[in-house]
């Protein structure tokens, strides 16, 4: 059987291979290609692979498939009816009972409660009955769901700004169940959106974005009703729709009636109305298993007699009911549900369009390994003190000396079923630590009743590497939404509650990974918790303890540190491609305009409101039916001189020529409406569309490294620059730190402007070791030997030449090494496989004869060889060839350069 997300993944792979074709909205290709920093290596600029795959899938659904609802999506992707029913989880017997009538079967799933219950089709029904497009992105914890949501919002807003009349999202509501997850969503304000969007799209996005987090006590959301480019982040309690009053089914009663907690309900509903006023809305539900799951269905419908919205409730969750209400009140474009699981009570959710599980997260290095580190104790609940002593002994022996790259020490969380059990066993914990010479000040006990001081200490453990607490005793804390990368081990003490996947949430908290950590996680379980954990793993992730215990990482994530953020730039001449208007041929007709026939912009809508008294005796405003008037907006106009100047500047034309054409079209003394300028510009393009290429020589300062392209923090008051990289596990020997060289201090002084160097091949690593040895063993004039081939993002370096690829598009090529001499001369070194030698030599020869290069590798070499031709006194370019090791003759020219020749 193929699931929806599997078939969709194949379609998205083909779309990617074709370079994201989208004739109506081509900017989406620009956005998705910008996510890849280096097309040759596949290194990503910011997003992880799972996040980019999810973003690609989202845009494939939006633009290629036109945002289908789930039933339509199944019909598009599964043309064969048996395959479609199989993917939907409907067995052949039910289809036979429906007399092979697909429409009748679907209608029965939508309407027959008993049929749905008997055949366990609850999750399918929920997918089939939604009146809007709703998709589930199921990514395991640690994969970065928050950043993914921010990426979708940023790209949607950028597309809306690029195509104002397009079908794009202009407002976003992000739900978070509970304060812990809401706090985690504050990461949205720290996302480096400039690394998600190309510069020309980022600037208008950054100027338009309005990010709002709801706060306790605020009666209203601080937004302008009906405005655009708002992102509202809230926990569900602050705005979810409250229970409709039993005395009335109307939407108004649902909003304003209250029997208990009237004030909280009224505030929540008032905030909801503000959200409902926003056009072109998308809703994001974080931890979406809080949204899914219904016993029977309820929905908003219009009453046939009164026309009012009426909620017919059969037990649907309140979050879902809130989204349904928004869909009825505004143009809800799409709903994105982010969760860590594609299952609900062991039923696959049929809206899952992306699935990235725990196993994939471990393989990709996004989560810590658990291989051979699940410890199962054959102890019952009466032997909890022995369990605690064994856990403490094991953790202290194997993890007490372990720390993250930022210095945060490894921590252990012990989860207890209640406060009484924790207090009973705390003495055993303290005794086990004391026996090993560890003080009790390393213990922190936290529960749902803890005071603010203790809660702040608990929050600091996740954020502050210097927090002293290492043994955490938790009751109903530290599960969903708690992000503590320094947590290396979890222990489940005595039998824990089964509800809300608590055992699973507790056990897997230690899996969150950070770049550079090589140590695995460890989980301690008892027999009483082991079966529950197995059940919840199968129910939530479709995996088992045995599979996780055998899973090993296939990729590594590391954090590179920029040691020399302000290296002097390389000052050279470059040939820059410009475009200029082609000189007009003799006899060219003068520019002529016709007055555009474009509609006048819509006016301003004024609504009439009236005060009404709610059932609680409080007064609120209600829109009066038919009480909306549209006032014509006087179109802003430009005098003919201003219009001519703007058009001339935009299209590189002489202002007098444009002014004469405008006067002829509009008549003397008449102004030009500003909404005519777009159409007038198109008339100019039709008459003066001739441009030609021109290469100019310009002086440029080539920055070998740009600190603004990295993540900046402060350590001890000093700016600290870092970036995250990812590579296959087998390439780990090619990740080299200064300490891996013969003389680390010397290597840091002469090389390693960032650390570590992520080489592509063994010969590259060999060249660095050879060059450093040359500097140590003889006289030289070298100021630095820097590996530059690992930084290819133009946001991080200016060192790249542009060449025309086989796809007739311009690409960037970054050489491997730069050596700088004290006399200001530079040697740029590239190391290539032997098989490229004939092509490169042949194309360099063609260059000398004034002929065009004919091969891909040759065009790269020619692009940099042109730099040498323009700067003979400053720069030389040298290609060395090697398969397993560099040929001796390759070193000769580099050796001469080092010695000053």
Brief write-up:
The chain has 31 helices and 37 strands. It has a seven-stranded parallel beta sheet with strand order 5-6-4-7-10-3-13, sandwiched between helices. Strands 14-19-18-15-17-16 form a six-stranded parallel beta sheet, with helices on both faces. The protein is globular and about 95 Å long.
- Radius of gyration, in angstroms, nearest whole number: 32 Å
Give the number of DSSP strands.
37
Mean pLDDT: 84
Distance between the termini: 68 Å
> What is the number of helices?
31
- Name the beta content range: 15-25%
Largest sheet: 7 strands, parallel
Helix content: 25-40%
Shape: globular
Unreliable runs, pLDDT <50, ≥5 residues? 244-260, 294-300, 309-316
- Estimated structural class: alpha/beta
Read across the widest sheet, the strand sequence of neighbours is: 5-6-4-7-10-3-13
How would you characterize this protein structure?
With 901 residues, the chain is of the alpha/beta class. Helices cover 36% and strands 22% of the residues. The chain contains 31 helices and 37 strands. The strands form twelve sheets. The chain has a seven-stranded parallel sheet, sandwiched between helices. Helix 1 (4-17) packs across helix 3 and helix 10 crosses helix 12. Mean pLDDT is 84; it is low at 244-260, 294-300 and 309-316.
Keywords:
901 residues, 6-stranded parallel sheet, 37 strands, alpha/beta, 31 helices, 7-stranded parallel sheet, 22% strand
Indicate the topology:
Blueprint: H1 4-17, H2 27-34, E1 36-38, E2 43-44, H3 49-64, H4 70-77, H5 81-88, H6 92-97, H7 102-111, H8 113-118, H9 122-129, E3 134-139, H10 145-162, E4 171-176, H11 179-184, H12 199-208, E5 210-213, E6 230-235, H13 236-239, H14 251-256, H15 262-276, E7 281-286, E8 299-302, E9 309-312, H16 318-329, E10 332-339, E11 343-344, E12 347-348, E13 352-356, H17 358-363, E14 374-377, H18 384-399, E15 411-415, H19 419-434, E16 443-447, H20 452-463, E17 471-475, E18 487-492, H21 502-507, E19 522-526, H22 527-541, H23 545-550, E20 555-562, E21 570-581, E22 604-613, E23 619-631, E24 637-638, H24 640-651, H25 655-666, E25 672-673, H26 677-687, E26 691-702, E27 711-715, E28 718-728, E29 735-736, H27 744-750, E30 754-755, E31 757-758, H28 762-777, E32 782-787, E33 801-804, E34 810-813, E35 817-821, E36 826-832, H29 837-848, H30 856-870, E37 875-881, H31 888-898
């Amino acid at each position: 059987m193929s699931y929806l997300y599997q078939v969709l993944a194949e379609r998205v792979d083909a779309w990617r291979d074709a370079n994201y074709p989208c004739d109506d909205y081509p900017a989406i290709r620009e956005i998705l290609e910008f996510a890849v920093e280096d097309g040759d290596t596949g290194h990503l600029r910011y997003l992880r692979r799972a996040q980019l795959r999810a973003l690609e899938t989202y845009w494939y659904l939006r633009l290629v498939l036109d945002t289908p609802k789930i039933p339509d999506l199944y019909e598009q992707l599964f043309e064969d009816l048996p395959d479609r029913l199989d993917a939907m989880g409907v067995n052949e017997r039910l289809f036979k009972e429906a007399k092979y009538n697909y429409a009748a079967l679907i209608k029965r799933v939508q309407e027959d409660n008993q049929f749905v219950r008997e055949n366990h089709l609850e999750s399918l029904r929920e997918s089939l009955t939604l009146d809007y497009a709703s998709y589930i992105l199921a990514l395991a914890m640690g994969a970065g769901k928050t950043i993914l949501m921010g990426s979708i919002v940023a790209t949607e807003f950028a597309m809306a700004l690029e195509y104002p009349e397009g079908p794009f999202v202009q407002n976003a509501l992000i739900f978070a169940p509970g304060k812990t997850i809401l706090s985690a969503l504050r990461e949205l304000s720290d996302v480096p959106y400039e690394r998600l969007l190309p510069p020309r799209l980022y600037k208008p996005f950054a100027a338009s974005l309005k990010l709002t987090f709801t706060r306790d006590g605020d009666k209203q959301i601080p937004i302008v009703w009906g405005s655009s480019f708002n992102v509202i982040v809230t926990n569900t309690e602050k705005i979810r729709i409250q229970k409709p009053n039993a005395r009335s089914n109307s939407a108004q009663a649902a909003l304003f009636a209250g029997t208990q907690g009237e004030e909280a309900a009224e505030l929540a509903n008032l905030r909801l109305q503000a959200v409902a006023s926003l056009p072109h809305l998308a809703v994001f539900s974080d931890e979406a298993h809080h949204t899914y799951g219904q016993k029977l269905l309820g929905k908003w419908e219009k009453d046939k007699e009164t026309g009012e919205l009426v909620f017919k409730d059969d037990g649907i969750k309140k979050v879902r009911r809130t989204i349904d209400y928004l869909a009825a009140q505004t143009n809800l474009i799409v709903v994105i549900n982010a969760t860590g699981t594609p299952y609900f009570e062991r039923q696959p959710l049929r809206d899952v369009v992306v699935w990235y599980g725990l196993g994939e997260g471990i393989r990709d290095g996004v989560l810590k390994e658990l291989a051979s580190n699940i410890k199962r104790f054959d102890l019952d609940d009466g032997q909890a003190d022995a369990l605690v002593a064994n856990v403490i002994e094991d953790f202290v022996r194997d993890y007490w000396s372990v720390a993250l790259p930022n210095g945060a020490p490894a921590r252990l969380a012990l989860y207890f079923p209640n406060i009484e059990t924790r207090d009973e066993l705390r003495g055993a914990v303290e005794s086990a630590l004391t026996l090993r010479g560890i003080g009790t000040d390393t213990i922190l006990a936290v529960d749902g009743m803890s005071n603010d001081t203790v809660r702040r200490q608990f929050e600091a453990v996740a954020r502050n590497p210097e927090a002293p607490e290492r043994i955490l005793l938790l009751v109903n804390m530290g599960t969903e939404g708690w992000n503590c990368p320094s947590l290396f081990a979890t222990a489940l003490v005595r039998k824990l509650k089964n509800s809300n996947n608590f055992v699973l949430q507790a056990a897997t908290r230690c899996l969150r990974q950070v770049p550079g950590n090589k140590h695995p996680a460890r989980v301690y379980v008892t027999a009483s918790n082991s079966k529950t954990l197995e059940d919840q793993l199968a129910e939530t992730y479709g995996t088992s303890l045995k599979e996780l215990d055998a899973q090993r990482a296939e990729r590594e994530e590391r954090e590179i540190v920029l040691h020399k953020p302000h290296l002097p730039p390389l000052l050279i001449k470059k040939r820059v491609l410009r475009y200029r208007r082609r000189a007009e041929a003799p006899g060219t007709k003068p520019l002529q305009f016709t007055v555009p026939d474009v509609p006048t912009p819509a006016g301003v809508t004024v609504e009439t409101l009236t005060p009404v008294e709610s059932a609680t005796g409080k007064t609120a405003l209600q829109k009066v039916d038919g009480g909306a008037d549209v006032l014509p907006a006087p179109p802003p106009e430009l005098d003919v001189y201003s219009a001519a100047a703007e058009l001339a500047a935009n299209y590189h034309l002489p202002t007098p020529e444009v002014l004469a054409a405008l006067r002829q079209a509009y008549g003397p003394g008449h102004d030009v409406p500003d909404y005519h300028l777009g159409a007038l510009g198109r008339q100019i393009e039709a008459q003066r569309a001739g441009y030609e290429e021109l290469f100019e020589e310009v002086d440029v300062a080539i920055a070998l490294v740009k600190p603004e392209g990295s993540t900046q923090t402060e350590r001890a008051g000093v700016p600290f620059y870092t970036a995250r990289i990812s590579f296959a596990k087998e390439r780990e020997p090619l990740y080299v730190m200064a300490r891996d060289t013969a003389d680390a201090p010397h290597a840091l002084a002469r090389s390693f402007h960032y650390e570590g160097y992520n080489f592509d091949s063994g010969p590259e690593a060999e060249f660095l070791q050879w060059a450093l040895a040359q500097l140590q063993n003889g006289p030289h004039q070298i100021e630095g030997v820097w590996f530059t081939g690992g930084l290819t993002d133009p946001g991080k370096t200016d060192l790249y030449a542009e060449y025309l690829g086989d796809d007739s598009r311009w690409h960037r090529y970054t050489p491997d090494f730069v050596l700088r001499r004290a006399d200001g001369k530079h040697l740029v070194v590239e190391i290539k496989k032997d098989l490229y030698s004939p092509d490169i030599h042949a194309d360099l020869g063609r260059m000398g004869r004034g002929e065009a290069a004919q091969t891909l590798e040759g065009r790269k070499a020619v692009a940099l060889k042109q730099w040498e031709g323009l700067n003979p006194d400053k720069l030389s370019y040298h290609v060395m060839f090697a398969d397993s090791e560099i040929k001796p003759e390759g070193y000769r020219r580099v050796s001469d350069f080092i010695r000053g020749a």
